[in-house]
Amino acid sequence: MTSIGTGYDLSNSIFSPDGRNFQVEYAAKAVENAGTSIGIKCEDGIVFATEKLVSSKLLVSGANKRIQTIDRHIGVVSSGLVPDGRHIVNRGRQESKSYKGIFKQPISIPQIASRLGNYVQVYTTANSVRPFGISTIVGGHDSQGYHLYMIEPSGVYWGYQGIAVGKGRQSAKSELEKLKLPGIKVKDAIKEAAKIIYTAHEDFKDKDFELEMSWISEEFTNGRHEFVPEDLLAEAKKYAEEDEDEDDEDDEDDEDEEMAE
Amino acid sequence: MEHDPFKWGRPDNATYGDYDYRISNAKNTEFPSMHTQQPIVTGTSVIAIKYKNGIVMAADNLGSYGSLARFSNIERLIPVGKDTVVGISGDISDLQYIERALDELEVENDYDGASHPFKANHIHEYLNKLLYQRRSKLNPLWNAVVVAGINSDNEPFLAHNDLLGVQFSSPTLATGFGAHLAIPLLRKVADKEEDVAHVTKEQAREAILQSMKVLFYRDARSSNRFSLVTIDKDTGISFEKDLKVENMSWKYAETIKGYGNLQKF
pTM for the complete prediction? Predict the structure, then answer.
């Protein structure tokens, strides 16, 4: 990259002569190398899934959750620097609480996405701070139905039918496109999400990981953001693992064929 | 004019003399500050009784503005968490404040996935702290609150809390007028804690319905529309709304003459 040594990458508040903010681009790099997270908007709900890389065998399995709750009806998952993810959720909780204090009703998803987007953007404009090293997927249910957004380190936020961030985003995105969103049911989306995360993990094959999943659905969780129950999670993992085995077998077959040739 | 950025636009001291800060600091009330002196829109009694496996609680739907029956659709039984209901009498705006405080408490408790759901005794403790803190600021929440639910030992829990920060527990509880009119009736069914084991759900419910009737007869700030909730440690909460006081007899009214002073004759 042309930024090295030019001095234009040392500060947030200085553009390079060709109009780029390098600090923000470096922040995006932090996300590109992190565990994969996905969000899916379904006909009847929202599903979040993340590949939580386990850095030590001494960590308690199932602890240190990555998917978090902003309010009853809003879930968040982010890829990138974990403490940054915690920070933005804290801010989201404050925003949600303050909105409820003023308007006496829960904040809508477009509103919270906008507030968080603006918050992230501010951290790209001042010399004294660094941008967020995370891409954040925010989803939820409100009076207008289900919504899914993703906020980038630059503060850009778009609404999506399905979105993937982190190292395995390329393969995950092409899998998501095959699902023909949002024409999918949450229960099916849970399985597909597990499969996508397992596939995306190919990029980090040497590291252990835990699959973490949550959902929001009027029918199954009463419009609340909750972790996927144990039985459904186990079912989804089974589905994902079966599929993985098939792929492996296919690979082996291919190899055999190659050898025969 | 002052050009100092901190005093910008003020009359120049050199020209007009020292600025009189008493003008900008003046209050436009007689008092330095004002706290709640009395409730405005009020709800009357909340009554509750324990039975073998749970609790029955009721409160009417009236919001009174002084003696005017101002609002007829106020819900004063507020469910919190999975197995607790808070019944609130007294000021309705303070009721709404407490409702929001409990909602916020619930949202914050669920941040980590509802892994530690709170129980009736926790909510009672929280409310007591809230009410006592406010009375210690000489700005009380003008309510009497009954917390009914299942506690952390999975036993029925019933406790009272009020604007003074007083808390106590009893197998029968009532606030306001109910403390005079309903408690004697409820104690006929369950006088002491050890009696509760012999009280059935049906008996408890019957006693509550009877007490709501008596309260409607004699409490001039009550209405005949009420909500009733049954919290059972096995079957959970069942809410009944829009109930009406039934089988009333106003016959005794025929014998009333004047405002009471003529009745001895």
Answer: 0.84
